[in-house]
Fold this sequence. Notes:
single chain; alpha/beta; TIM Barrel; eight-stranded parallel beta barrel; three-stranded antiparallel β-sheet; 15 helices; globular; hydrolase
Amino acid sequence: xxxxxxxxxxxxxxxxxxDFLWGAATAAYQIEGAATEGGRTPSIWDTFSRTPGRVRTxxxxxxxxxxxxxxxxxxxxxxxxxxxxxxxxxxxxxVQPTGRGPALERGLDFYxxxxxELLTAGITPLLTLYHWDLPQELEDxxxxxxxxxxxxxxxxxxxxxxxxxxRVPMWTTLNEPWCSAFLGYGSGVHAPGRTNAADALxxxxxxxxxxxxxxxxxxxxxxxxxxLSITLNLAAVSAHTTSPEDLEAARRIDGLANRIFLNxxxxxxxxxxxxxxxxxxxxxxxVHEPDLADIGQRVDFLGINYYSPTAVAAADSSRPSPDxxxxxxxxxxxxxxxxxxxxxxxxxxxxxxxxxxxxLLLRLRDELPxxxxxxxxxxxxxxxHCEPNGTVHDPERIAYLQAHLxxxxxxxxxxxxxxxxxxxxxxxxxxxAHGYSKRFGLVHIDFASQRxxxxxxxxxxxxxxxxxxxxxxxxxx
Length: 477
């Protein structure tokens, strides 16, 4: 791939390769709705969101953006924007309601219709098997801390592959296993809302194992041309200062955020320092002899989700951590703080720093030089409003996406093998514990009427896709 910079008098135009994969992403529970239709049973997010106090204002994903009934309209929007690809997830309890046994054909039929609609529109489907909606029955049996859940996931992966493998060329096993493990079982701010450090570490391993076993199952069913991946929300970790204490804090967080997944996936081992750091929490006896060989299966690309950087320091009572630090999500790191990063912030109170994405991509260039990368999520929430004339102006989102696409282009020019970019998200949606209070979409959703309105950022992104170029402003003085 060639990444060109075309210079002019007042600007530079960044050109992306003709085969660069431009897309947008969503997740089943956040958009589908139809929570009890077609035989679908509750997931852990249905249970969690219906538990008082768990989700802001008691919002649930029961209706969401009603994509289940509006998918043809949504695919038409994708086609209008010129998307080359669409990343979506399958609802596990819609396809296999108990997490065991045969597939529910009514559930698979929805995804068959969706995929057919995408292909008719010339849009490549990128299917994610798991975006956090574990069937509640499997959680009742132990959830991700239970070893059997990894085997159940592999069975489910094979069911979906047999149904859609002839039409879907790109497959992702798990989305952000860090969130599933450490927000779901450590801090408890995500479903299922458990708070046990040992369970969080156990869940992380079984998610890794689930990925490996599902990859084996997929390769046994899918055509040899299918591309397989996992998506990680790797952290761009930096020490707050160069003090030995802050550098040590950054090392520990890097182990829990990044290397707990990268090392077993690509080197078939857990980092020795991570095992020592957490030895007072667990002896890691849940890692069995064959596990690491299963986990370390070949993938065809790595999905990267990036939103903001992570600054780390030794604990300091005078330097409180922001709410986004998620106490309890970092087992064994009670003496570590997360100082606020200066500068602009999104509506999620996340710092805006595209340099973290560049840093992360160069790290992967060096550590995994032969592995293609795809940015599977990148975007920002802002306070968007639909004007009476039907327009939605979101200049902050455009500026955010502009800066991060420039960072991607710069990383590619520096040797990172990035093959595609997916905006999060196509639609405003149910934003997990924030309910409907945060809007990430390129398309505004009026949740009362389900009216879809493309924002200014959608038209801006459509132009980039159409031209394959990004106009970059240059400093003039």
